[in-house]
Amino acid sequence: xxxxxxxxxxxxxxxxxxxxxxxxxxxxxxxxxxxxxxxxxxxxxxxxxxxxxxxxxxxxxxxxxxxxxxxxxxxxxxxxxxxxxxxxxxxxxxxxxxxxxxxxxxxxxxxxxxxxxxxxxxxxxxxxxxxxxxxxxxxxxxxxxxxxxxxxxxxxxxxxxxxxxxxxxxxxxxxxxxxxxxxxxxxxxxxxxxxxxxxxxxxxxxxxxxxxxxxxxxxxxxxxxxxxxxxxxxxxxxxxxxxxxxxxxxxxxxxxxxxxxxxxxxxxxxxxxxxxxxxxxxxxxxxxxxxxxxxxxxxxxxxxxxxxxxxxxxxxxxxxxxxxxxxxxxxxxxxxxxxxxxxxxxxxxxxxxxxxxxxxxxxxxxxxxxxxxxxxxxxxxxxxxxxxxxxxxxxx
Length: 396
Description:
Blueprint: E1 9-16, E2 19-24, H1 40-49, E3 52-56, H2 71-77, E4 78-80, E5 88-90, H3 92-143, H4 145-150, H5 161-171, H6 187-194, H7 207-218, H8 253-261, H9 264-274, H10 292-297, H11 302-333, H12 342-368, H13 380-395
Antiparallel strand pairs: 1-2, 1-3, 4-5
Helix pairs in contact: 2-3, 3-5, 11-12, 12-13
């Protein structure tokens, strides 16, 4: 046998599992034989983890140059590529990436499987929902059989079961949104729709009331109704004269005397209401001075006369406007148009008339005593309410 070629490592000393101060001098190529458990793998690991002391001839190699090809290396660095026989990826980095890719692929497969399971479950739920909805529409259709047969013209436009059920649901006063697995109506709602079977549950409307409405709309003798009248305006006339004292500024001696007493309105009223041909004072029954008529007429200057005239014209316009409103609103109150808001309209109209009469009394007081200041109550809001109610009634 020829002489062995020596390696750069001249001596190896190992301390570790299985070995205690074991020393040998390796050659260029060395073979280690032994049964399982005798320490072959431990010897290889000792070179990698540094528990083997190496004596070098010359400069030692860096640790990165010491390469161990064992089972651990194969696990970390050699991976099957795509499960293709005989095709592998080499290097620890590639093997790690391959392992990560395999893990991600496994995760994706699990997600895909879950999605397919959810889609299948959704399809089953849709089928169940469709079945339940069909049962629901059939139940509504059957529950309304009495009404459909008694009032066919009223429900002629709802011959489709689904449309009929949707209409019933939309008109239910106690609208709820239950769980997807629950019926559209609970027992109380169904009782209301069907007419009510429980002693403590009253139907929303009786069959007799429905029959009366049906006869009104579809009976042989069709009544005719007029719409509610609207007012041309919701604002009544106004005048600055109401908040202004109307006082004569005549400078005659008699006028100054009457103005000093503040009795011009009183004298004027007495003269217009109680003056007689006997030339006597209506209060004391004494003979009036010969020039009394001329002196009294001179008490009123042109501005006073003009303002009194304008005041009288305004009062007449105000009363005319009230009369027009009364005529329209009173006609509305007598209208036989079937509406649940007629009582509300009448109540508003009564309040309006009460306040309107109070305003007219103030105006008459102002005409009688122009020197007084008055303020009318604003009736615009009441008029607007009446117009709105009338529009709502007309709109149906």
